[in-house]
Design brief:
This protein has 140 residues and is of the alpha/beta class. The chain is built from three helices and six strands; from the N terminus they run ααβββββαβ. It has two domains: 3-33, no CATH class; 45-135, Beta Barrel (Barwin-like endoglucanases), CATH 2.40.40. Strands 1-5-2-4-3-6 form a six-stranded mixed β-barrel. A hairpin with a 5-residue loop joins β3 and β4 (96-103).
Length: 140
């Protein structure tokens, strides 16, 4: 970069000492403008689209290290800590199931959780469903 380019760059983007937005503040503003609560997935309640996964992943290693079992009541969530118990309610029919988060996902598609086949069956899901997720206290 030559001196002329450096002068132009400084003129366009002056460096702000402590007066400008911090990176943390900027990330928070961007998250809120995208409609994502800053603590989404950390605890409390979430509402969104759920899907399920089963036969193609059965026996494969999950993020928790255990093999995926489509017949157990488990789920994949992008941010909840592995081992977290959650109550998932199908908002279309009111059916609910308790699952344990043992994997990461879903990866795309605007979904907030991927359920095991067994959990999806208990919710009477046809592919995807609008659900609420509520974290439960840890069992002793």
């Amino acid at each position: 970069m030559n001196e002329r380019n450096e002068r132009c760059l400084k003129a366009r983007f002056p460096r702000q000492g402590g007066a400008g937005f911090s990176r943390v503040m900027l990330i928070g503003v961007l998250a809120l403008s995208a409609g994502i609560p800053p603590d989404a997935g950390a605890s409390g309640k979430q509402v969104g689209k759920a899907s399920w996964y089963g036969p193609g992943f059965h026996g494969k290693k999950t993020a928790s290290g255990e093999p995926f079992n489509q017949h157990r009541l488990t789920a994949a969530h992008p941010r909840l800590p592995l081992g977290t118990r959650a109550k998932v309610t199908n908002l279309g029919n009111g059916k609910a199931v308790e699952v344990t988060i043992n994997d990461r996902g879903p990866h795309g598609g605007g979904r907030i959780i991927d359920l095991s086949r067994a959990a999806a069956r208990q919710l009477a899901m046809d592919g995807t469903a609008r659900v609420s997720i509520e974290t439960l206290p840890h069992r002793p």
